[in-house]
Amino acid sequence: MFPDIIDKPLDELIFGTPAMARTVCHTLAFLMLLSAVAYRWQDSRLASLAGGVAAHFMLDSIWSSLRIFLWALLGPFSRAPDLTTLDYLQHLLRSLSDPMVGLPEMLGLSYLIYFAWQRKLFSVEAASSAGIRDRQ
Questions:
Q1: Digit-coded pLDDT (tens) for 35-63
Q2: Of the candidates 3, 112, 107, which has an alpha carbon nearest to the alpha carbon of residue 60?
Q3: Please, are residues 3 and 65 in contact by the beta-carbon 8 Å criterion?
Q4: How far is it, in rounded angstroms, from Cα 33 to Cα 25?
Q5: What span, in angstroms and rounded, lies between the C-alpha atoms of 27 and 49?
């Protein structure tokens, strides 16, 4: 998910459309840079992130988009058709009906909820300390 979280807003800013979907963070150069930083700093969290990016590439079938994956070696990114943000969101919601898209997304969301619950990132105590209280 990390490459998507970075690339989609970045594409909106740079290209004016979220439809590009795969740019800088979907490249071999990004994966190599992330892996090199993890190795240099001996940081297992960054190494895990690099492993997650590599897994993301496999699930995205990135080898079918070699111009993106080997960016800088094969020239600039291909331009995607212009879509408004609303059109793009509608496209994403329609694609969730495809089991090859919807199932991994639901598994990812389930993991994030489990992760937040295990780490107690969302609790009544945290909401109270942030000044968010039930209004009676």
A1: 999 999 999 999 999 999 999 888 888 87
A2: 3
A3: no
A4: 10
A5: 15
User: Is residue 56 located within the same domain as residue 119?
Assistant: no
Q: Are residues 22 and 60 in contact, defined by beta-carbon separation less than 8 angstroms? A: yes
Contact 18, 88 (CB under 8 A): yes
Rounded Cα–Cα distance for residues 58 and 105 (Å): 15
Do 133 and 73 share a structural domain? no
Supply 10's token pair.
Answer: 């970045």
Residue 8 is assigned to a structural domain of this protein = yes
Residue 127 belongs to some domain of the structure: yes
> Domain range holding 44?
2-82
What is the distance of C-alpha 115 from the center of its chain? Answer: 17
Q: Which of 57, 51, 64 is nearest to 25 (CA)?
A: 57
In terms of pTM, does the model score above 0.70? no
Question: DSSP assignment, residue 111?
Answer: H
What is the number of domains present in the chain?
A: 2
Longest CA–CA separation in the chain, Å: 61
| Tokens coding 9 | 């807003």
Same domain, 76 and 123: no
Is there a single domain that holds both residue 71 and residue 107? no
